Amino acid sequence: MATKQQEQLQAAKDEFVTQWGAIGNSWGVNRTMAQIHALLMVTPDPMSTDQVMEELKISRGNANMNLRELVGWGLIRSIVRKGERKEFFEAEKDVWKIFCMVTRERKRREIDPVQDVLLRCQDQTEGLKGAEAQAFQKQIKELADFVATTSNIMDKVASSQQSKIVPLASKLFK
Q1: In sequence order, what are the residues at sequence separation of 6 or more whose Cβ sits closer than 8 angstroms to the Cβ of residue 76?
Q2: pLDDT tens-digit profile of 133-155?
Q3: Which residues contact 113 (CB under 8 A, 6 or more apart)?
């Protein structure tokens, strides 16, 4: 009986890891990085690089690169065990913290560069005359204002506590 339950659990775990990897691209994360994150989220004990490699059938280089990237995002942390030479990794399990970390990183990678481009375009066309220049400036300003608002919202969400933001968001979307 225990074997049947273990098989069912493993099948569900495999499906979760596979699907989390598939949606990773939507978050600006490569498939393997998302699969490693998923694996560590649903594994109760920290895992070594070798265990991650074995479970996901990936190379050491691929595992190391993606583990470092996940540590950089703050989604996983390195664990050193006394008497062990191997490094172990565990995932942040708090869903709200994960959401905040992903929001912060996506803002840094996607929103901030757009904001920089829009500000440069505003600076480059400042003082230009004519209907075409004015139409361009108007459109860029509207985009820059929207991106700035989005950036501020993402900053607030990423730095907030769930207990404060969730009730507010619930009121907004009812």
Answers
A1: 36, 37, 40, 67, 70, 89, 90, 91, 92
A2: 999 999 999 999 999 999 998 88
A3: none
